[in-house]
Records
---
Amino acid sequence: MSDPETETDADAAGADAAGADSTDTAKGTDPAAPQVVLLDVLPNGRPDDGRPGYQKSPVAYGLDVQSFRLFEIALSDTAQVSVSDRLTLDGDAVGRYREVGVDDLTRNAAAEIEYAVEAIVEDDERRFVDFFNSADPLTLRQHQLDLLSGIGETLRNKILDTRKRGPFEDFEDLTDRVSGLHRPKEVLIERIVDEIREDDLKYRIFARRPE
């Protein structure tokens, strides 16, 4: 796994705007700033920053709860946050932030992705159950439901036929009404994690990639 590209904390905090990465976003400039689940918090700054400790700002890595984008976040010196906390990127705890890829994460942040996705799905169950209610064909031969592990043509057709009689209310309703559909929540989480981690997927339903 590669280390994040070098960027001084002074840049990240906005102390030297001219030297900041062009993909950085300053607090207060994004009217639709994402909310993220924190994957890792580095109170002493990034390990690849060779400056003295007193010159470093704390850094965190977070996963966007809506589009599953990954962010590196320069925190304010007074921020009191921990792994699994939710943080709005336009809040007082944030200086600047930038979108990153999986390879830019710390080892601890990368290991935390699946737990964060699980928490997001459980906290907003109806949103993800509605995927089963509204999933559409991708092509004449492939359906969005086919992207989920263990769902083949027979099970896909069962889901489509069953939802015609009324939308699924929750994951328990899914398993009760669709014979043979086991662990739909876990299968959905697996797909989301794959979309976050993998670069070569043909279709992405949940996780947006960095531009």
Note: The CA atoms of residues 118 and 186 lie 8 Å apart.
---
Amino acid sequence: MSSSAGRILHISAEEPVMNIDFSIVLPYWLLLLKGLGLTLGLTGLCAVIGSLLGFVVSLLRSSTVAWIRMPMTLYVEFFRGTPLLIQLFWVFFCIPVVLQLAIPPYLSVVIALTLYMGAITSETFRAALKSISAEQHDACIALSLSPQAKVLYVIFPQALLRAIPPLLSNIVSLFKESALISSVGVADLMFVGESISNSTARPLEFLTTVGLIYFMVAFPLTRLVGLVERRFLRRFAY
């Protein structure tokens, strides 16, 4: 038994030990930056479209007409109550089958992230709309503004101003959640990092680097949320 243990120790001693070497990342930094650029581009596009969608949904949810309000409420609760990964898979795999349409992966990702962003920002705008005083609505009536002019020139600017801090938080969350799009083959930062780590058999260095890149982008944005709330929102919104 002692001889067997000795052989095991001898074999283990001869096995190579992987050294941590982050210099191996340097030849691939352009690929990682390209993946980051795609991640930021998709996040920005979906954040803008999703925020506009969220504002429209928040207005429709405040309607007194049940057949308008209920579908919007169902949409929001569904996308807030299910994992984003399931939503991505459903848009990527199920919609092409149901509609018999060929949807490119990038378009599928934009649709899924936009619907997700619209659902979470609708709650942000709904709270902002409730904070607008009744005097603002009365002033619109006194000025005989049309409903479109009221929403565009009075309600939307004030709601947007009040919603800026939570909207920034939602954008940060969307940026971090966007790492899931690598699961449907879109070459974002996470996908590039995983591909390189698999081809080089150095997951520790590359996945750590990817995590640091996400942190270096997300952390300043989270600090910006606090800065905006302290200096901008309190000065102009109230």
Note: The two ends are 79 Å apart (CA to CA).
---
Amino acid sequence: MKVVLRSIISSLLFLLYPYLVYRGVQEGIVWFAPVIIASLYLFQAVQAKSSRLRFKNLDIVFLLLLGSVFYQDIMAKLMPIFIQLSLMNFFGKTLFEGRGPSLVERFASLDFPDIPPAVSRYCRYVTMMWTGFFAFNVAACIVLALFAPVSWWALYTGVMIFLLSGVLMVGEYIGRHLFFRTIELPDKQIPGVKDSIRSMMINGRSIWLDVRAS
């Protein structure tokens, strides 16, 4: 129960981070948001069982605390860049030879015991699409952090990224069903949204940890 509660609190703070930075700029306390997130990473570093993960989290803590003192306006805006870079790496590294199957195929395997070659290729293309989307977000976050008002940056990182992600999810879901029809995959083998979400909730964490450790 404590683990779930900590996960919920952490997720809420990350979701609210752009707003906290925006308010911090308005109130003259830009350091507040980076310090809050740094405390979360410090806690994760202490709890981490892997030395690699521990030092990775400590590096982020150092950068956040450094940013809370120097170049506050710019450094406070780095967190969404870190997140999008991490997601880009998380999806993208499964596309390299010897790192497969692709991330989307790993999740698809929760619904399909034996994935046909055509579905495997489709999963690879979807993984490439998400990798490209996160790469675009990295570029957009950098440009907005350097050249745009903080309100624009907060709007994109706190709202638009999630809206665009939703559009991609819906578009991919529709495209998936259209594609499955072209390979004559029986409808009964196409999992519904509820079934897919249930499978991801039950088994998704193991896939996440496996890819993260690779």
Note: The first helix runs from residue 2 to 27.
